[in-house]
Design a protein that fits this description.
Length: 294
């Protein structure tokens, strides 16, 4: 029954209009670090001069049969991106690993490096072999580290579900993870999709996190999805546990992945922060296309 309700909500998006968005905010002109929220879990980072793109999703539809329609326009087109040095993929679900987006990015960036959860980088490399035969792709198991051009990437555990497509039952073949990205100047954490779990509390002792990119959407069927996603209140708890100095809410306002209104996550986040005023100044609520100078 849960799957049927979620499928109906996804199908219903085909009869709803796509919302316009404001023009993207400009990047800092001084070359400084920034984070830009581009919808769903897609975040563009500039860290010590390197451009990092997380879970790039620029397509208008996704899923095995392309039945899920984007509800808000993409705030930044693929051809408006800066040269991309690194792509991070937290898992292989269609709203996070979007092959049309990856193909376009790989074609435009011949020196691209891809780092992903265990099994996911190999999958992406196979799919991109005709476009980027020399793509550098790295699979990371939980807590495994990789050094790239002065950045240290650590795969951090969470609580989600692997796999590429529900119908292929490949949950164990393609894993999931979050990432901690460290440069000499700052540290950024992205959990990917995750439900509440003890791994957030482990971050505080292991890292000094400047910014946490916390997902807040796809939670309304709490009995079914809570183990895999966080409600806004859960995201605030995870943020506090992580010890991060600032939080950027992500994974909202883009696709309908559950039977919840598109704006519900942001509304509940606002209400939750009214109850936790000590966190309000630390949570940076950007619009789609918004830029946070780091």
């Amino acid at each position: 029954m849960e799957y049927i309700l979620i499928l109906k909500a996804m199908l219903d998006t085909n009869f709803l209009p796509t919302r316009p968005v404001d023009d993207p905010q400009p990047w800092p002109k001084d070359g400084g670090d920034f984070a830009q929220y581009l919808g769903q879990a897609t975040v563009l980072l500039r860290l010590s001069g390197h451009h990092v793109l997380i879970d790039p999703m620029f397509s208008r539809r996704f899923s095995l049969a392309k039945i899920v329609k984007r509800r808000s326009q993409v705030p930044l087109a693929l051809d408006e991106l800066p040269p991309i040095d690194l792509v991070l993929l937290s898992h292989a679900h269609g709203d996070h690993l979007d092959l049309p987006s990856l193909k376009a990015i790989a074609a435009d960036n011949p020196s691209l490096t891809l780092v992903a959860a265990e099994g996911v980088a190999s999958y992406a490399k196979r799919k991109l072999r005709n476009i980027a035969p020399h793509l550098k792709a790295h699979n990371l198991a939980w807590r495994q580290r990789l050094w790239l051009d002065g950045m240290k990437i650590t795969a951090w555990p969470g609580k989600h579900l692997g796999g590429r497509h529900w119908v292929t039952l490949d949950f164990l073949r393609y894993k999931y993870c979050g990432f901690v990205i460290q440069t000499p100047k700052r540290t950024v954490y992205f959990p990917g999709d995750s439900g509440s779990c003890p791994h957030f509390a482990g971050l505080k002792d292991a890292f000094d996190i400047d910014l946490a990119l916390m997902p807040i959407d796809a939670f309304n069927r709490r009995d079914f999805l809570r183990v895999r996603h966080m409600a806004p209140e859960d995201a605030l708890d995870a943020f506090a546990q992580s010890g991060a100095r600032r939080m950027l809410p992500v994974h909202w306002g883009t696709f309908t992945l559950c039977n919840e209104p598109l704006d519900l996550a942001r509304q509940r986040l606002d209400r939750a922060l009214e109850q936790r005023p000590h966190l309000d100044s630390k949570v940076k609520r950007l619009p789609l296309g918004g830029v946070l100078a780091l």
